[in-house]
Amino acid sequence: xxxxxxxxxxxxxxxxxxxxxxxxxxxxxxxxxxxxxxxxxxxxxxxxxxxxxxxxxxxxxxxxxxxxxxxxxxxxxxxxxxxxxxxxxxxxxxxxxxxxxxxxxxxxxxxxxxxxxxxxxxxxxxxxxxxxxxxxxxxxxxxxxxxxxxxxxxxxxxxxxxxxxxxxxxxxxxxxxxxxxxxxxxxxxxxxxxxxxxxxxxxxxxxxxxxxxxxxxxxxxxxxxxxxxxxxxxxxxxxxxxxxxxxxxxxxxxxxxxxxxxxxxxxxxxxxxxxxxxxxxxxxxxxxxxxxxxxxxxxxxxxxxxxxxxxxxxxxxxxxxx
Length: 322
What we know:
Layout: E1 2-6, H1 11-22, E2 26-31, H2 39-47, E3 54-58, H3 64-73, E4 78-81, H4 88-93, H5 95-116, E5 120-126, H6 149-168, E6 171-177, E7 180-181, H7 190-199, E8 204-207, E9 213-214, E10 217-218, H8 219-228, E11 235-240, E12 246-247, H9 248-259, E13 265-268, H10 283-289, H11 297-310, H12 312-315
Parallel strand pairs: 1-2, 1-4, 2-3, 4-5, 5-6, 6-11, 7-10, 8-13
Antiparallel strand pairs: 9-12
Keywords: Isomerase
EC number: 5.1.3.6
Domain NAD(P)-binding: 4-304
């Protein structure tokens, strides 16, 4: 198939591009290469997508006119929308760009699918929608009280997808990701930050007491689930997680052990827009998609640290952000 992959220079996007290419698909990738975090990392990911079936265009999905030209240039069979403004805390500082990309950008893509009769759409969403729900999180739980503009913008994208499925019979898979980490990961996420700071003997910041837990999921497993979600399902929401929450301090200990160094920790108050815990129930993804994660947290952290050290002259210079 010819697949439009948005957010192709992003962390999950680049890994998904490689999975699609390995499966024999042609991938047209787009990304606006924004500077929310170090653009050099995004360029590094793009440079590692070395395949004749991959074409890249710098493009912002919130720009409907630019999207229209792209859809006139190519005939797409499916769209995977991974383009997103991520980061809970920054969404409070600048909520407008989150709705421009996450909600309006999704609407733009759906409208082009309607106009070009593209029948399959995959949307990347987030576990942040489950704030306040009892764990483990199942896809049938109500997610009507998002506690950050980031989560609200993703909720807007999900319900817009449903309306286009209902009105125009577009087959849609919504995949809710749970705390993704791995090689070439985002430098605003805890695992990347902790690896770099502990390696360089810099203090790490823990918000709260470190007992908050996350369902950390290795990026290759997430990419595989995203590709499998191209399956025709009607309209379905799937949790893609590791089904095993870990406390943040346990993650720090794993990194310390692998690096052979001790972390210096600075504690700050827990942010009210953050979640205290996440835990994905992944039975639905297993039953319908035949997907389940293959990597334990220990395996994934080992692979992430190996990538960091193998590319140390590059990784040690990547700018971190809160």
